[in-house]
Records
---
Amino acid sequence: MSVVDRQEWDVVVVGAGGAGLRAAIEARERGARTAVICKSLFGKAHTVMAEGGIAAAMANANEHDNWQVHFRDTLRGGKFLNQWRMAELHAQEAPDRVWELETWGALFDRTKDGRISQRNFGGHEYPRLAHVGDRTGLELIRTLQQKIVSLQQEDHRETGDYESRLKVFQECTVTRVLKDGSRVSGVFAYERETGRFFVLQAPAVVIATGGIGKSFKVTSNSWEYTGDGHALALLAGAPLLNMEFVQFHPTGMVWPPSVKGILVTESVRGDGGVLRNSEGKRFMFDYVPDVFKEKYAESEEEGDRWYEDPDHNRRPPELLPRDEVARAINSEVKAGRGSPHGGVFLDVSTRMPAEVIKRRLPSMYHQFKELADVDITAEAMEVGPTCHYVMGGIAVDSESAAARGVPGLFAAGEVAGGMHGSNRLGGNSLSDLLVFGRRAGLHAAQYTAGAGAGRPEVDDEQVDAAAAEALRPFSAEGPGDQADHAPENPYTLHQELQQTMNDLVGIIRREGEMEHALEKLAELRVRAWRAGVEGHRQFNPGWHLALDLRNMLLVSECVARAALERTESRGGHTREDHPTMDRAWRNVNLLCAPVEPTDGPAATDPVRGRIALTRETTEPIRPDLLALFEKEELVKYLTEEELYE
Amino acid sequence: MSSYEARFRVWRGDIEGGGLKDFEVEVNDGEVVLDIIHRLQSTQAPDLAVRWNCKAGKCGSCSAEINGRPRLLCMTRMSVFDRAETITVTPLRAFPVIRDLVTDVGFNYQKAREVPAFVPPEGVGPGEYRMFQEDVDRSQEFRKCIECFLCQDTCHVVRDHEENKTAFAGPRFLMRVAELDMHPLDAAEESGLDRGRTAQDEHGLGYCNITKCCTDVCPEGIKITDNALIPLKERAVDRKYDPLVWLGSKIRRRSS
C-alpha cells in the first residue's frame, strides 16, 4: 500500500515553458483548478533561449502579409508534411496570441507608428517576427510568468490563498503518467529538493515538456531537454509521430569547445549577416534547391538590394529554411573550406555599424564577448550546425491538442508533433506554443468539466511500481558482483549516448550507421539498467540523470528507427543513401509505439528493441488550402494521386 | 588545445552544516566555471548539487559566489583566473542553503507575488495599443532581467540583515515596480494604485541607500540603481512632499 502524498487538481500541466504556462493560464481562466509542474525554477524554461521572435501575420511591417501567406510559408518550410489543419490554425491565431501578450504587459520593439515591430527570418516571405531585440523568449516567458502571478493575486484577493486555483510545483520531475483503465488519472513525481515522491491526481494532463536535444552532443538545448514528455506519453500508450525529423540549426557557436552548440540567432542573418567559407566566398548561392529557385536572389547584388527594397528584389539565400542552410554549411566544412574551428564564418561586422549591431543584436554581442572573447561588431563569428528542435512528437488532434489513444492526455509546444512537418521555420516555435498551449489548456479544462462525478481513480499498484522504478538507481548492483554487473556511471552513459546520436543519427544519415546506432542504443539500454548513484535523495543530480536516461534512450530509439525507415531526404531528415525528396513519402507518417504493454514498471526485457513503427497515410490537404499554391509548385511535392484527385 | 590541473574549493553540505572541500580538476582552453563543476560531477562528485539550465547567460539559474563574488557560473571564463590560484565556489550567501551550491530562493518568488501586476488600460483592445520605441526603452532595460537574483544576494540590506527581508523587496523587485511605473500602458494610477508610493510604503524602498552593489553584479548590465531605484525614490519623494502633487492626486482620485 502506497503512502505517497496526494493532491487533487483538475488539470495538471507538465512543463512550464511557453506552452505549459499558456496552457495553465487558459485552463485556470476556464475555471479549472490547475497545477503546473516543472524541473527548473519557475521562469527558467528553455523558452528563455528563443531569440529571434514570434512569427505572426500581423502585417505591421508589410501590409501584404496575412495568414494565408504564413500558412504557405509554413508548408513550404515543412515540405508539405505538416498536419495542415494545425498549420492553418497556427497562422490564423498567432496574431491574437501576440497582441494578447501586450495586454498582459509585454513590451515588444516598436515600428515608427507605434505598432509591434516585425523582422525578417528564414523561410518567411515578409518580415513577420514580433520581437524584443534578440531576447524574445525571455520576454515571452516573463510575461506569461507575470500573468500567472496576476491570476494568483486575484485568487489571493478572493480566497486568501495565492495557490488555491493555480499552483506551480517548481523543481519537480514527473516520471510517470498514471492511468485508470485507458484514461489519464494523474502523474507520479518527485521533488528534486528533497527527493520526496508525490502524486497529483487529475482527469487531464497537458504535456508541454519541450524537446529531446540532450540526446545529442552538439546541441543548443538546455539540460531539461531529455525527451521526458515524449517518453511519458509513449509509456502511457500515446504514439509519437515522425520522430526522424530533428532540426539542426545552422548556426551554433563552434568555439570555444565549452559553448559548442549554443545558438547564434537566425536574426543575425535576417538583419543582414552573410555566410562565407574560408576562401571568403558567399557560398549559399551555390545551394539554392530547385524547389526554392524562383524565390531567392541569384546574385549578391540582388540579395543586398532586397534588404532595402523587398518588393522588387528576391531575398538572399542566407534566408533559406534552416535545413537547407545547415546542410550547406555541413558540405562546405566537409569539402575543406571551413573555418579554423570546423564551422564557417558569419559576418555582420562589415555590413552594419557597431552601434546598430549592439542595438539589434544585444544578446549576441554580449554572448560572444563574454563566452568567446569575440567582438562581433569587428570580426566574424564562427558557426556550425547544432541540434536544436524536434519536429516529431506526440501525435495530437489538430483542434484540441488531445493525444491519440489516451483520453485526458493533451500535448502542446515542441513535444507535440505535426505542426511543422519535416522542418520548422524560425519564429514558428514561439507562435506554435502560444496557439496550441492555449488550445491544450482550453480543451483540457473542457474535458475535465465533462468528466463530472466520474473522475478517474489513482491505482495504488501503479504508484508503487513508479516509486520502485524511481528508486532503482540506489540499489544498482554493487561492485562486489561480477564485473559486468558493476553499477554504471550515469554521466558516462549520457556522454556515450550523446556521442552515438551525434555520430550516427546526426545531420546526414546512412542506413548502416543507423543500424549500428540501434545496436549501440540496445547496449546502452542494458547498461542504463545498472545506472547507479551515490548519496541520498536530496537534490542529487546523479540520480536525476539516471532517471532521465530512460527517456533519452526511448526517444533516441524512436529517432533512429524512424530515420532508418524513411528512405528519402526531406526537411530535418537527410539520407546520404537517398539524397532526394521522394513524392511517394509525401503522405506517409511514421508512428512509434512501444513493443510491449506499458502499464507495468519498465521491467521489460532491455535487450530487445522497445519501439515498433507503423506507417500511416496522411489526410489529404483541403482543396482551398492547396489552391493557395501554384500548380507548378505542387507538382514538386505532391504524389500523383494527390495531384489528380 | 592546452589543459591544466586547477585547484578548486567547493562548499559542500546542507542546512545542517558543511564546509569547503578541495578538488584538483582538469581545465581546458575556453572553459567556464560551470564546465569545471560539471567535470567534478561526472568524475569525482556525482551528487554535487548545482542549478543550471541554459549555460549561455540567459536563464539566470547558475548563480553562486566565486571567490566571494556573486556571479553566474556559466558566464565566468576560467581564463580570468591565474592558473596557480585556488578558485573557491560557494552558494549564494543571502539565501538559506539547500544542498551544496543550491540555495532556497523562495524569498524572491514571495516578493514577486507582492508586487501588484500590470494593469491594462480600459477600453483598448488587443492590437490597438500604440507605443513608441523611445517610451518603451526605459522599461525594456529592466525587462532584460534574467532573475538570477545576484542583485538580491549582494544587497547588504538583506545580505547582512535577515530581519529586513519582511519589509524589503530587494533591488530586483523594486526595479519591477519601477518597470511597471514607467510602462507606457500601465493604468495603475487610473485604478487608484500609486506604484511609487507602494515602493516606499510596502516594498521598503527607503532601506536602499544607493550603494550600487546590485548594479555592480548584474550580469545583464542593467543600471538598476541609476535607472530604476533612484528615479523611483525621486518620484516617491516628490509625491510625498510636494503639496500640489498630493492635492492633485487626491482630486483626480475623487473625480474618477
---
Amino acid sequence: MAKGRDLWMLGLDVIAAIAVLVVLYMALVWAPDAANLTTPVERAAQRIFYLHMGANVGAGLGFLVTFVASIIYLFSRRRIWDMLALSSAELGVVFATAVLATGSIWARPTWNTWWTWDPRLTTAAIVWLLYVAYLMLRGALTDPARRARFAAVYGIFAFFSVPLTFMSIRWWRTIHPVVLGGSNPEAQGGFTLGPSIRLTMFVAMIAFAILYTALLVHRVRLERAAEEIEQLKEQFA
Amino acid sequence: MNRPNSRIEPAVTQARPTAFETGWLAGVSGYLRKVLAIVWKDVVSELRTREIVSAMFVFALLATLIFQFAFDLRVDNVRQVVPGVLWVAIAFSGVLGLNRSFIMESDKGCLEGLLLTPVDRSAIYFGKMLGNLLFMLVVEVIILPLFALLFNLPMWMPGILLVVLLGTFGLAAVGTLFSAMTVNTRAREVMLPILLFPVVVPVLIAGVRMTGGFLDGTALSEMRNWMQLLIGFDMVFLALAFMTFDYVVEE
C-alpha cells in the first residue's frame, strides 16, 4: 500500500474525529435549549435531535451511493463498484439503525412512547428492512458475479421504492415534526429553529457526512483486502 | 392431408405479404406471439398438474380463516378489517405462486431451455409475468365472491375489481423478477417474501386504502392520489423489471 494514501486516509480519520467531537460539544453544551419546550426532560431529550439528523444524512448518503454504484456496476462490471455498493449499504443500515434508535429515545419522553405506528416512523422501518433484505440477498448467494449482479438489481429497486413509499405516507396524517421546510399542524414535539440550533444541526449533518466518508473508505479497503486474501488462498491451495 | 410447407417454398404460401408480415407490425405481432407462447406453456402445464392455483387458493383461504380467529371476537365492524385481510391473503398467496413460477423452471432444467430459445429475454419476462398475473387473478376471482359471502360485504364491484387488478399487476411485475432472482439463492422460498414485501408496500397501502374506500362508498375522484400511486408504481416497476431482467437471467 502506498504511503501517500495511508497518510490521506489518516487525515480523513482525524478530520472525522474532530468533526464528531465538535458536534458533541455544540449539541450538548453550546446549543441553547429549544425555547418552546417546557419540561426539563423534553429540553434534554431535544438535544439528541442533532445526532438524529446527522445519522439521517449518513443513511441517506449510504443508500444513494449504493444506488449509484449499483447502476455503474451493471454497466461497467468492475468489482470495485460492487464493493462500494456493499460497503455503502452496510453503513446505510448502521446509520438507519441509529436514526431509529435515537428517534425512539427522543420519542419516549416527548410522545410518551418508544414507538408509534406513525407513517413517518413506519417508512423509516420499511427503508431499514429494504436494505437489511439487500444484505440478506447478498448473504444467500455464493457465486461472486451473480451476487454482484442480483445485488445491483435489488439496490436499484430498493432505491426506487423509497420515494413511492414516502409519497404514500405524505397523504396520511403524521405527528412527526417536519423540521426543514413547512410546518405540520398535527406535529407533536416540534420546536422552532433558532439560529444557533440551526447552525448546530447543519454542522452535525456535515460532520456525519465526513464520518460516513471515512468509514466508507475503510470498509472498501477492508473488502479489497478480503478479496486479495481469497486470491492468495487460491494460489497456495 | 396436404399441408403446404412454408419453410421450403415461402414464396408460394406468402404470395402477398400483409402489414403483419413486414415492417414494425410484424415485429410487434411476432413478439406478442412469443410472449403468449410462454404464457400458454405455463397455462398448459398448470392445467395438467393443477399444483399452483389450487395451492394458492387454499393458502388464501387459510390466511382468511386465521384472520377470522385473530380478529373476529374483538372487532365490532368487519368492514374495518376486511380490506387488510383481503390484501394479506392476496400478497401471501401471490408469493406462493410466484415462488413456484421459477422453481418449476429451474428444478427440471427448463430455464436453460427457455433461455436457449431464439426470443428476446424480455419476452420471457413478460410471458412469465403474464402467466403469474393470470394465476393470481384466477385465485382472486374465486376469493372475492367468497369474501362477499363470508363477510356479507359487496366485494364484487367495479372499483374493487379495478384496484385488485392494478395491485396484482404490480405484485406480479416485481415478483416475477425477484422470483427469477431468488430461485438461485440459498433458502430460496424464504428469500422471495423478504425481498418482495418491503418493495411492494405502496401497492399494499394503496390497495387496502382504496378497497376500504370503495366499501365505505367513497367516490373514485376522492381517491385519485391512491389511484395515481398504484398506476405509477405499476409503470415504474414494470419498466425497471423489463430493463433489469437481462442481468438476472444472464449466465
---
Amino acid sequence: MKKSVFLGALTVAGLTAGAAAAATLDDVKARGTLNCGVTTGLVGFAAPDSNGNWDGFDVGVCRAVAAAVLGDPQAVEFVPTTGKTRFTALASGEIDMLARNTTWTFSRDVDLKFEFVGINYYDGQGFMVPKELGVSSAKDLDGATVCIQTGTTTELNLADYFRKNSMNYEPVPIETNAEAQQQYLAGACDVYTTDASGLAATRAAFEDPSAHVLLPEIVSKEPLGPLVRHGDNEWGDVVRWTLNALIAAEELGVTSANIADMASSAGDSPEINRLLGTEGNLGEMLGLEADWAVKAISAGGNYGELFEKNIGETTPIGLARGLNAQWTDGGLLYSPPFR
Amino acid sequence: MTTITDPQQESFRPSMLLNDTRYRSYTFQFIALMVLIGIIAYLGYNLVLNLRAAGLNISYEFLGEPAGYDINQTLVEYTSRSSHLTAAIVGILNTLLVAFLACVTATIFGVIAGVLRLSNNWLVRKLMAGYVEAFRNVPVLIWIIIIFTIMTAVLPAPRAFRGEDADASMILGSVAFTNRGVYVPMPIWGPGSMVVVVTFILSIVGVFAYRAYAKKLLFDTGRLLPTGWPSLAILFVPSILMFFIMGQPISLDFPELGGFNFRGGLQIGAPLIALWFALSIYTGAFIAENVRAGILAVSKGQTEAAASLGLRPRRIMNLVILPQALRVIIPPLISQYLNITKNSSLAIAVGYADITATLGGITLNQTGRAIECVLLLMLFYLLISLGISAVMNVYNNAVRLKER
C-alpha cells in the first residue's frame, strides 16, 4: 500500500516536472529527434504505412519542423495520441509539439495554457450516413444514433446542434477513429460525425466509399493547427514560422522542385531571398541555420504540394482546396511577411 | 533463606531505543514514517510548484459549469446543459448499476461452476475446468471487447427489421435483439399500481419469513416443510390477485420501429450488456475457484456422515457442505466484488458511460482539469470499495464459525 501511494505520487510529480522545463529548442537539438504528437491513425493526415513509416498532411508539418531544426526530416519520433491523451502528453513534455487535427479554441489556448501557432487546415464538422438510409440533410437526423469521438470539440458541437434544432439523438462515445469506423460499418450507429476532412479520409478507407454520403451541413468552424506549450515563446516561434514558411513558399512559387536552384544564390525577389536565407539573418533570429526554411520546404514540399500529395483531389481522400486555398486564390491561407 | 525480590525497575534511557528489542521496532517504524512523510511532502510541494510555474492551479469550479455533452445512458435527469457535477453523478450511478448487476450474476455463475467442477460427471467437470481456465487467464479487457464485437457484428442493426421482407424479426413481436442493445416492453405504471408493487415487496418479505419458519421447524421438530412451490406461490399469487382486483393498472409499452431506432419500450444498451456479461463470466471464473476451495476445505467425513443419515446429495450440499464452506468463501468473495467494481472502469472501451468515462474521460478532457478529476475519481473508488468491504464484512461476521 505504501509503495503504491509512493509510486502514484511519483508519477504525478514526474508528469508535471516536465511541464516546467522551458527551452524546448535546446532539448530537441540535444536529443537529436523531435517528439511529435499525431493521431493514432487517420489516413491522409497521419497514419503509418505498411513499413511503419508515418505519412500524411500533419506528419508533413512534423517533418518540416524536424528538418528546420535538425536538418533531417526523418529525425521525428511520432507519438500516437487519442483525443483524450493528447493534451496531457503535450502539457507533461512527453511531446514537443502536437500536430493532430486539433481545433483552436479559446479555452484550449487560454485555460489549458497552450499556444496554437497557426492553422494548417480550415475545417468544419460534418455528418456521414450510409446512402441506403436515404437521408439528405442533417435536419432529418432526429432520433439517430451517432458515433462520436470523446473529448473532442465535435462532441460539444453535436450536443449544441441537436439541441438548437430540438432533435434527439443517442451518442455512442468512442475513443479512436478506427473504432468509430468499425462501429459505423457494423451499423451500431446510423451517423458518424467528426471534422469533414476526417470524414472524407475515413470514407476513403472504406471498401465501398460510394455507399456513404457526407451530408451538406457543416455545423461548426474547426480551425485545425499545430500547437505547443505556453511559456516557451522561442520554440513557439520556430514551429509558427516553419508553418508560415510552407504557406509562403506556395504563395511565392517556391516548390521542392525548384528550391535547390533558387536557394543556390540570391535572386530578384527580396522576400524569397530572406525566406531562403540568401539575404538577411532570419534563421539566426530563430536560433537556427540560415537555410532552415530551405530544409523545411525540401522535406515534403510547400503547403500546396503537401496538400495535393496527401489529401488533395487526386488522392482517394479527394478534398478540394476550398477555404484552404491561398488568399490570392480566394482562400484563407495568408502567411505574415518574411521581413 | 533466599528472598525473591522484584528486579529493579530500569529507568528509561535513550540508548534503549536502539538496544532494547521492545523499543527498537518502534524506532525504525517511526523513522520510516518520517521518511515517507518527507518524500510525499516533497513530491506534493514539487507538484504545486510546477503547477504554479505552468500557470495552472487546482480548482473545482468547473464542476458547476454546464457539461455541454450528451450521455447515452442516464438514470437521472440529464441534458447537455446540466453541470459537470450532474454528469459525474450520472457516471457514478452507471458504475454502481453495472457493478451491482455483475456482482449478482458473477456470484450465480461462480457458485454453479464451482460446484459443478467437483461433479462426478467427467464431461461436466472438464467443461467447467475449461471455462474457469479460459476466462481466468485472459485479461478482462479482451473479454469485454470480444463480447462487444460479437454483439455488434452478429446481431442485426435496427434497420434490418424494416420493410415487408425484413432480414430480422422481433421475438413474440415484443423483444428485439439488435446490435445497439436489447429492446423489451416497458411497464407503464397506471394509478393503483403502487398497491401491486407494495404487495409484491410484502410477498418477498413473506417468502423469507416462510423459509425462516420452515428452517426453525426443521431444527426444532425435525419436520421438513416443502420450500419450493410454496415460495413461488407466496411470491406471485397475492400480486397477481391484487393486479386484477385493482383493474390491471400496469400495462406494457412495446418497442416499435420508428425513424432510425426502435421507439418506446425499454432499451438495455449494448455497452451495458457487453460490460455486464464480460465482468460476470470473467469474475465468475474466479468465484468458482473460491467456491471449489471452500467446498474442498470441508472434510469429506462430513459428506459421508450426512450420506449415512440418508440425505440426498443436493440436500447434503445445501444443508451441510455450503454453510460450512461459506466461511472460507466469503473473505475472497469480498475482494472479487471489489475487483468487479474497479474493473468496471474499463467501460469506456465499449462506450459505456461510467464514472471513468464521464468525470475521468470527457469532463477531464473538455476542461483540462486532469489532477482534480483524477483525485475525485480516486476518492470515489476508495469510498465505494470501503463501502462494499464494510457491508461484506458484516455478512462475514454473521456466517463465520461461532465459537462457544
---
Amino acid sequence: MQRDERPRRTKKFGHERGRVALLLLAPSVIHLVWWIGIPVVATFALAFTDYDILAGTVTFNGLDNFQEIFSDSTWNASIWHTVVFTFFTVPVAMAIAVVLALLLNVKMRGSAWYRTAVFMPHVTATVAIALVWMWMFEPRLGVVNTMLGWVGIDGPVWLADPDWALTAVIVVSIWKGIGIKMLIYLAALQAMPNDVYEAAKIDGASQVRQFFSITLPLLKPATFFVLVVSIIDSFQAFDQLYVLTPDGGPGNSTTVMTYEIYRTAFKEFNMGAACAQSVVLFAFLLVLMLISRRLTGKEDDVR
Amino acid sequence: MSAEKLSAGAATAVTPRTSRPLLARRLRRVALHLVLGTVSLAMAIPFLWMIITSLKTDPDLASYPPGLLPRIWDWDNYPEALEYAPFGTYFRNSLFISLGHTALNLALASMAGYALARLPFRGSTVIFMGVLATMMIPTYTKIVPQYLIAKGIPFFGGNDYLGRGGHGWLDSWWGLIIPGALTPFAIFLFRQFYLSLPRELEEAARIDGMGEFGIYARVMTPLVKPAIATVGLLTFESSWNNFLWPLIITTDTDLRVIQVGLSAFQQADQNAWAYMMAGTTLATVPMVALFLLTQRYFVQGFANSGIK
C-alpha cells in the first residue's frame, strides 16, 4: 500500500500541473494569437485584397495593390528616404555609442552620472523630445541657429527647408538612439572574460594590441546585435518624423515608409494598399537581417 | 578593477605602458572627464532648454538673439498651460492606461512565464517558440489588422454580432488598454527569472500539500521581485511613451493620452512655445524621475533585452 502511493501521487501532480499550466497560459496565448498572430497573417492576406472599410467587405484583387503602390511616386520616394535615414542614423549613432561605452567602462567617479545623461533620451517619449527639438530648430529664435551664429554660420530654416528637413530629423534620431546602443555595448564590455586580458598582458601585448586583437573581436556579437536592432528600429521610426515634419515634411521630403503606411491606412482608409506597403517594409527588414547575419557571421551567442 | 584594466587600452591608446607616471594618469582622467562631460551636456541640453523655455515670458521668448536664462522666471506658465490645453486630462489618461498596462502585463506575463519555465506539459516548447516568434514581429506588420480587429470587436460601440456597423473599441478605454496589455518580451523575461529558482523550493511546497497555483502565487513569484520591478518599469515606460496606437484609435479629445495631446497641440498652435514646453515638461519629468529612482532595474531590463 505504502509503495503504491508514490507513483499515484506523482501522476496526480502531473495532471494538476498540466491543468494549471493551461490555465496560466491561456490568457497570454489567446492575447498573443488575437493581437499578434491573426494580425500578421491578416496583413499578408489583406495585401492581395480590396478591403472596403465602410461595408466591411473583402474582395480578392491579386497584385493590384502592389502595382498601385509602386506606381505611386510618393511611396517610391518614401523607400528612398527610409534608406537614407537609416544609412545616416545607424552608423553614426553606433560609432558614438561604442566610443562612449569604452570610455564609460573605465572605473571612475561620476561614470554613473555620465551614463544616466547619455541614456536619458531613450527613456523619455519621442514625441516630447521631438517637440523640444522642434523649438530648438526654430529658424530665428531656436538655440541651434543661435549657436551656429556664434561661429558665423547662417543656419537654414531646418524643418521648413526640403533640403534640410531630413537632416534635422536624422540629428534628433541619432541623439535619441545613442543611449540604448551605448548600454548594449557597455553590457558586452562588462561581460568580457578577464583572463584573456591577463594572458595577453603576460605575453607582453601592448594595450593598443589588446584593444584590436581582443576587445574589438569580442565586441563583434554585440555589434551584430546593435546593428540589426538599430536597422529594424530605424526602418520603423515614426514618432519623431510625424511630429517634427507633419504631413511628410516640406514637399514630401521626409516621407518614410512608416508614414506612408500610416497615411494610406488611417488618412485614406485604403487598408489593402497599406497592408501591401507593410509587406514591402517587412520584406526589407527580413532581407536586411539576412544580409547583416551573413556579413558578421553566424553568432550563436546572440539570439 | 577588472573593468579598469580592460578598458584602459581603449581610453589611453596613446600611452602604451601600464605602469605610467601618476601625472600622466591624472591628465588622462581629466581628459576623460572633459570628453564625457561635454557629451553629457550635449545630451542634456534639450532637457535643460525645455525647462528654461517653459519658464520664460512672452517677451523673453520673442527676444533676438534668445537669452540663455529667463529674465523673469515665470512659474505661472504651468497653471496657465493646464488651462490653455487639457494637459491635466491627457496626463490622467496616460497614467490610467500605463498603470493598467503594467498591472495586466505583470499578471499575465508572470503566469505564462511561470508555466513555461516550471510546469512540464506537452506543447510547452511549441508555445515558447511561438512567444519568441511574436517578439520579433515588427510593429508595422500587424498595425493595420490590429486596427481593423479593434474596430470590429462584436457587441461593442454599436457593432452587431459580426462586428459590423459601429466603431467597436475605437475611441474607448478598451481599445486603449487591452491590445497593448501583454508583451511577449515580458513573458520571456519572467520565464528566464523563474528558471533560475531552485527546484527544491517547489518540491518542498508540493510535499507540504500546496496546490500548483499556490506554489506559483505564494512561493515562487515573491522570489522574482527583480523581474517584477524590471517588467513593471519597462511596461510603464513604453506605455507612457506610446504614440502610434493611441493616435490611430482615438479621435476623442477626452481620451487623448499626453503624447497624442502634445502632438495635437503643436499642430494647432505653434506659437505658444512656453505652454508647449510646460506640457512637454509635465510629460517628461515623471519618466525621468522614475528612471532616476529605479535606474538599476531599467538598465538591467534594457541590457537583458540586448544580451540573452
